């Protein structure tokens, strides 16, 4: 059987591409030896369908032409790839691989593993870092910006991991470290910039970025500061905002927090006060803040109130001392004393520091349109400083228009503003309109609703479903008030809607029923005099006892005139009853009590005069009868 030397087939296409990169200096020699020492194979088994070729002796050397032809292809391929290296990299390395290689080059630390996890060693392709100059050589297009931003993002992620590692060394949990790191974008950028600038220092010229970033984080003492802020009841979102606001000057945060403790600001409000006090609050001197606090304290704001004031209105710390003096003088010029001013600031600190001076002047001018003078506006704001927080266009003008259509005039609005200024602070659509519609539904007319609101302004501040409706239902079901009289009762006595059902109304109803008054009659009495249910039992019982025992009046008189309980026992009932008894005259309760002293005196004189005339007329008739009787007797005697 004929034998042939081992045939040298050209390698596959993908192998030929990798071949030049793996070629050693003795590549031709290796090929020569492998060709010369290859074992012979049978022609039938090796090439079954090809024609047989003449056999060469085994010891015959391969000609140089054969070797040159074989090497020519490899050398040409290597030269071709070397001349077009830039073009080759652009074709072979896609954009995703570029980003991955860039990330491998920047990330020099493995991903932190949690205890008990299995760390998978990276493959050779991942650990070996290709030269970036060969990959991005010669590129100068719009993709450079994208690659730079990607490089910065990777560097930022590396810095975040270094920060998390420092947090975990400070005994913080993984979850807390991750959450806080997500809130510190500005601080992470600050660490990146500082670490990059440290490269210019001689002692850090040969250090890695990770080492420099770690040094920046340790020198800033951010981890102890975070632990201290957390100990002072600050949540991680506020800690993140404070650190970002500091712009690298972390020591100012601790100084400001220590000062806030001196004015009694609680720990949970530290972050809120600092963040709302302005962006430059960390740059201000403590002496300036002390001057503001001292000035407020001199004008009536107590020292132990200062923490509550600053916690609800941190904007006061953003003003300079001149601005604070102007705002304080705005209220003191309206006649407020230091006590009223201090109480006003404690009740509603935003009235002093939240709104602009223009807004404050506009609201004072608008309040004067209701007929209030400058001092009355000052007393009003001292009593209800929340008025300063109401918008003229969105809150006051719609309310005034609505009350006007209900028949409430300027004087009525002024009375409402003085008695219950809270009415001008509530929401019109959600609070006032539903109550007015309810009154309309039970039969009260619009003008009567207006009079009712002007008479009893606190009515608009009561809850419709917890206060007003339950009282109406009680009057109709337990107090005997009929459906047709309920509107009259509410219109005449809106104060009933502010009474407690359990402690006031129900107690009074049971008392009147115990006197023997039927439930239906009691409803009529309430319709005639709704205030009957508002009196205390201790006031009703002595008057009823005097009526029944001393005046000896029947229960019918009380039913006819339930207003009897509205008069004072010592100043009205007893003196007039004595006057009636002394003059020996009698009146109904309505005429005896429901009149002034002059009218009562005239009424008593008229009654005495009538009684005198009546008695004189009876006496005259008696004398006439006596004279006529004696004359008859004399005549009879003469006749005899």
Describe the structure.
The protein is mainly α and 640 residues long. It is built from 36 helices and two strands. The protein has a two-stranded antiparallel sheet. The longest helix has 43 residues, at 597-639. It is elongated, with a radius of gyration of 52 Å.
Low-confidence stretches: 1-69, 124-128, 135-140, 629-640
**End-to-end C-alpha gap:** 211 Å
What coarse outline follows from CA principal-axis ratios?
elongated
Provide the structure class.
mainly alpha
Topology:
Layout: E1 3-4, H1 13-22, H2 27-36, E2 41-42, H3 43-46, H4 64-83, H5 85-92, H6 95-106, H7 124-127, H8 132-135, H9 143-169, H10 174-181, H11 185-197, H12 209-220, H13 222-231, H14 236-246, H15 251-262, H16 270-276, H17 286-298, H18 306-312, H19 321-332, H20 338-347, H21 350-353, H22 357-368, H23 374-383, H24 392-405, H25 410-419, H26 428-441, H27 446-455, H28 464-477, H29 486-492, H30 501-514, H31 519-528, H32 537-550, H33 555-560, H34 569-582, H35 589-593, H36 597-639
Helix pairs in contact: 1-4, 6-9, 9-10, 9-11, 9-12, 10-14, 11-12, 14-16, 17-19, 20-23, 25-27
Task: Sum up the structure in keywords.
640 residues; 36 helices; mainly alpha; disordered C terminus
What's this model, at a glance?
The radius of gyration is 52 Å and the shape is elongated. It is built from 36 helices and two strands.
């Amino acid at each position: 059987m004929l034998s042939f030397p081992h045939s040298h087939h050209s390698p596959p296409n993908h192998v030929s591409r990798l071949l030049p990169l793996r070629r050693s200096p003795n590549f031709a020699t290796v090929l020569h030896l492998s060709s010369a020492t290859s074992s012979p194979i049978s022609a039938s088994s090796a090439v079954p369908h090809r024609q047989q070729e003449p056999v060469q002796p085994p010891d015959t050397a391969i000609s140089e032409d054969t070797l040159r032809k074989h090497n020519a292809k490899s050398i040409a391929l290597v030269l071709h790839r070397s001349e077009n290296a830039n073009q080759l990299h652009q074709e072979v390395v896609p954009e995703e691989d570029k980003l991955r290689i860039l990330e491998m080059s920047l990330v020099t630390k493995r991903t932190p593993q949690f205890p008990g996890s299995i760390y998978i060693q990276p493959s050779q392709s991942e650990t070996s870092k290709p030269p970036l100059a060969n990959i991005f050589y010669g590129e100068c297009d719009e993709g450079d910006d994208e690659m730079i931003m990607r490089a910065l993002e990777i560097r930022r992620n590396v810095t975040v991991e270094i920060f998390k590692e420092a947090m975990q060394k400070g005994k913080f949990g993984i979850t807390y470290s991750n959450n806080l790191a997500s809130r510190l974008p500005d601080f992470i950028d600050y660490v990146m910039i500082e670490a990059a600038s440290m490269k210019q220092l001689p002692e850090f010229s040969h250090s890695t970025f990770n080492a420099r970033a770690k040094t920046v984080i340790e020198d800033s003492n951010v981890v102890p500061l975070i632990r201290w802020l957390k100990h002072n009841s600050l949540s991680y979102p506020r800690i993140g905002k404070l650190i970002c606001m500091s712009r690298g000057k972390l020591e100012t945060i601790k100084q400001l927090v220590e000062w806030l403790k001196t004015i009694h600001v609680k720990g949970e409000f530290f972050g809120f006060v600092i963040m709302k006090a302005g962006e430059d609050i960390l740059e201000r001197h403590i002496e300036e803040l002390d001057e503001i606090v001292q000035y407020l304290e001199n004008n009536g704001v107590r020292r132990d109130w200062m923490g509550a004031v600053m916690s609800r209105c941190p904007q006061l710390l953003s003003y300079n001392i001149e601005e604070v003096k102007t705002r304080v003088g705005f209220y003191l010029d309206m006649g407020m004393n230091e006590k009223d001013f201090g109480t006003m600031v404690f009740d509603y600190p935003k009235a002093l520091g939240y709104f602009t001076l223009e807004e404050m002047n506009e609201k004072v001018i608008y309040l004067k349109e209701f007929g209030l003078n400058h001092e009355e506006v000052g007393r009003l704001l001292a009593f209800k400083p929340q008025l300063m927080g109401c918008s003229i266009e969105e809150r006051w003008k719609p309310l005034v228009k609505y009350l006007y259509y209900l028949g409430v005039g300027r004087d009525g609005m002024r009375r409402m503003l003085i008695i219950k200024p809270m009415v001008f602070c509530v929401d019109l659509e959600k609070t006032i309109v539903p109550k007015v519609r309810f009154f309309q539904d039970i039969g009260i007319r619009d003008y009567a609703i207006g009079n009712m609101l002007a008479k009893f302004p606190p009515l608009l501040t009561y809850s419709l479903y917890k206060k007003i409706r339950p009282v109406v239902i009680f009057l109709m079901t337990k107090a005997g008030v009929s459906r047709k009289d309920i509107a009259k009762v509410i219109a005449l006595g809106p104060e009933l809607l502010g009474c407690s059902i359990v402690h006031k109304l129900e107690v009074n109803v049971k008392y009147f029923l115990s006197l023997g008054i039927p439930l239906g009659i009691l409803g009529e009495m309430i319709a005639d005099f709704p205030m009957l249910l508002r009196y205390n039992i201790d006031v009703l019982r002595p008057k009823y006892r005097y009526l029944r025992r001393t005046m000896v009046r029947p229960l019918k008189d009380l039913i006819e005139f339930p207003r009897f309980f509205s008069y004072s026992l010592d100043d009205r009932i007893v003196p007039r009853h004595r006057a009636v008894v002394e003059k020996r005259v009698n009146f109904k309760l309505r005429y005896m009590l429901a009149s002034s002293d002059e009218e009562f005196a005239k009424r008593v004189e008229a009654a005495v005069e009538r009684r005198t005339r009546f008695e004189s007329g009876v006496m005259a008739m008696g004398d006439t009868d006596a004279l006529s009787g004696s004359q008859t007797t004399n005549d009879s005697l003469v006749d005899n």
